[in-house]
């Protein structure tokens, strides 16, 4: 007796994602699971048949570096990626993000994104629901938003520093106190408990020296020309963030460091984070 499939995809060029040579074949799907890959008899029955002649059939691609932190709220397909075979995206890269953000910093956080991602302010004001302040609350808001792709979020260091230290001190590159470092670590734990995959930062400047950083033209500056908090953050703060991952035994670091993060520090962060 021939098997019955919910869906058969026929005659596609199959790229399996395991570095095997591509080959032409069929895929049978039952109960949402791939039940067979290869040549499926024409006598096999199915509820739906898709002719993939001339097309590539592959697992969904993962877009590791996106800035869909705002777009996720108005574009369920995240179309630049979703229409090109991407089924999972990572947001919160380069230290940018919208949580945790207090109410009085919402406008400024949106203005930052108009500079770094060229998103019109009117679009952000219209589309952002802002029904959150904390990171877990933002993830809850994303969960309530219809999406056609999977979303994996980093915790951006910039909003984290501003939340704990205040905008002026964070952008001035003041070194956090021990109590502030403890709060930064607590908030990262809280975010990862809620579903964040780690932390991200753009560190393209001189620790504690925003003027020198601005003159170096190495960093992607804020909308007002000043460096981002992460560009003037101290190495000790990166160690504190890495230690959270080490304590948890999980998580990733996405760090844009260029010449400002030495190979020795990369190795140290890798060792601390596990």
Could you walk me through the main structural features you see in this protein, from its secondary elements to its overall organization?
The N and C termini lie far apart (52 Å). This protein has helices at residues 79-82, 106-116, 121-127, 135-143, 157-165, 167-172, 178-194, 210-216, 235-248, 263-273; strands spanning 4-14, 23-30, 33-38, 45-51, 56-57, 61-63, 86-91, 150-153, 155-156, 198-202, 252-256. α5 (157-165) packs across α7, α7 (178-194) packs across α9 (235-248) and α9 packs parallel to α10 (263-273). It has 2 domains: 4-57, Urease, subunit C, domain 1; 61-273, Metal-dependent hydrolases (TIM Barrel, Alpha-Beta Barrel). The chain is elongated. β2 and β3 (33-38) form a beta hairpin. The mean pLDDT is 96. The strands form 3 sheets. Strands 1, 2, 3, 4 and 5 form a 5-stranded mixed β-sheet that branches. It has a 3-stranded parallel β-sheet with strand order 6-7-8, with no helix packed on it. It has 10 helices and 11 strands. By secondary structure, it is an alpha/beta fold. Helices cover 35% and strands 22% of the residues.
Short note summarizing the structure:
The chain has about 270 residues and is α/β, with parallel strands linked by helices. It has ten helices and eleven strands. It is elongated.
The count of DSSP E runs of length 2 or more, i.e. the number of strands, is 11
Beta-strand percentage range? 15-25%
Tell me the overall shape: elongated
Domain count: the total is 2
Q: Tell me the helix content.
A: 25-40%
Overall structural class, as computed from helix and strand content, comes to: alpha/beta
H/I helix tally: 10
* CATH class identity of the largest domain: Alpha Beta
Reading the helices and strands in chain order gives EEEEEEHEHHHEEHHHEHHEH
Main β sheet profile:
5 strands, mixed
CATH-assigned fold name of the largest domain = TIM Barrel
